[in-house]
Amino acid sequence: MKVLLIGSGGREHALAWKLTASPLLERLYAAPGNPGIAKHAECVELDIRDNGAVVDFCRDNGVDFVVVGPEAPLVAGLADDLIAAGIPVFGPTAEAAQLEGSKGFTKDLCAAYGIPTAAYARFGDATHAKDYLRKVGTPIVIKADGLAAGKGVTIAMTEDEAFAAVDDCFSGIFGDAGAEVVIEELLEGEEASFFCLCDGKTALPFGTAQDHKRVGEGDTGPNTGGMGAYSPAPVMSPEMISRVMGEIIEPTLKGMEEKGAPFIGVLYAGLMITDEGPKLIEYNVRFGDPECQVLMLRLKDDLLSLMKGAVDGQLAHMSVRWSDDAALTVVMAAKGYPGTPEKGSVIRGSEAATAEGVEIFHAGTALKDGELVANGGRVLNVTALGSTVTEARDKAYDAIGRIDWPEGFCRRDIGWRAIEREAAGTKP
Ligand code: AMP
Ligand code: GLY
Predict the structure, then answer these.
(1) Backbone phi, psi, residue 80, to 5°
(2) Which of helix, strand or coil describes residue 65?
(3) Nearest 5°: phi and psi at 124?
(4) Is the CB–ligand 1 distance for residue 3 below 6 Å?
(5) The pTM is what?
(6) How much distance in Å is there from the Cα of 270 to the middle of ligand 1?
(7) Which ligand ends up closest to the CA of 119?
(8) What is the phi/psi pair of residue 396, to 5°?
(9) Which residue stretches of the chain have pLDDT < 50?
(10) Ligand lying closest to the C-alpha of residue 290
């Protein structure tokens, strides 16, 4: 198969690395890719916001399968345009991508199908939103309805914070994404990420992970896209997975099919495991970044056949095998992240730092005068396998010690919750 992979981050590097191992793969293109992805794929300069240009590239180059990494092209209808041109694509249509593109859409689906989630209300103006806030009080969660690059969520402890979040949302800082707000109950418990491959009818569980969203050690400071992750998530026992499938994932697929928008691709459920059971925080319609990196290290089966199985409606006849090992990834970021990261600093030793069971995925790098430089906030994902999370962590930090990049930083406590459990010899 000739495959085009859309995206340029650490998630896409991990996908490219795994796709390259497929016996089905004849040629891999990546648009736009990055210097790490270029080791596995031919990187092409395509504007991935221009659906027509992507379709033309596929036609001109005989691409017979497209894998879309990030959510924005999906919400913008890239899958629809590829399907209309007869090109198979792993990723949902724009309508199905509403599961991530509109928080209100997902909440209404949950209400209609009895899917457990935080109690909520939707508002199109600040006055009604604030009247509601006065009634329900704090703590409370305020969310911009649309895609806001991870910045649209405020957990408000006081009424002033809640009002400010509502005003921010309607001030236009999130563009169209802030035309509506969703106000919801604060859930308490342990968060986990759960992935499923979906073919429209069948969902195949595709791994669990936990990530660290805050920039600072001890899970403090501003939110980021994720500073590290590990898999599996100890809290996702086989019993919990089976509850999540029955109570959350299966009704979602049924609901989407009944709406005439069957979901094909990878569905990423952000869950809160509460005292009452699992509740849906949000859906994403793509792999997590950096969760994908740890999943790919543990996946034993052929990724491309599984993705093809999802597109061909064959998942009911397929299964997935995982390594018993744990995987952990540490994000190395450029100083300044998640504010304004410094770009252009030289990174040395990242090739040599790779070792048995350690992969270094590029998230935000570029080549300048033959040298590898930082070109984004999150720059490298140092990812390792180990018989325990503790062992994977030690291998990842050993590799980081061999990378010479004074302008970068990372959290030193990735995996702390699982590592504490391992040290105490306890299960969740
Ligand atoms: P989201 O963009 O919806 O994933 O929200 C970002 C983060 O905010 C989540 O990963 C949670 O940590 C937190 N969050 C969002 N909604 C809730 C909620 N209803 N209760 C508690 N935490 C939440
Ligand atoms: N790591 C969180 C996300 O990909 O949304």
Answers:
(1) -60, -45
(2) strand
(3) -105, 0
(4) no
(5) 0.95
(6) 8
(7) 1
(8) -65, -45
(9) none
(10) 2
CA of 290 to the centre of ligand 2 (A): 7
Rounded to the nearest angstrom, the distance between the alpha carbon of 153 and the centre of ligand 1 is: 7
d(CA 17, CA 38): 10
CATH number listed for the domain at residues 2-94: 3.40.50.20
Domain 326-424, CATH number (from 3.30.43.10, 1.20.1260.10, 3.90.600.10, 3.40.50.920): 3.90.600.10
pLDDT tens-digit series, residues 174-200? 777 767 888 999 999 999 999 999 999
Structural fold of domain 190-317: D-amino Acid Aminotransferase; Chain A, domain 1 (3.30.470)
* pLDDT tens sequence across 36-79: 999 999 999 999 999 999 999 999 999 999 999 999 999 999 99
> Would you state the torsion angle of the CA atoms of residues 70, 196, 4, 148, taken in this order, to the nearest 10 degrees?
-10
Give the pLDDT confidence of 396-419 residue by residue, as tens digits: 999 999 999 999 999 999 999 999
Q: Is 110 in the pocket of ligand 1 (CB under 6 A)?
A: no
Nearest CA to ligand 1 atom 4: 282
- Return the percentage of the chain with pLDDT > 90, whole number: 85
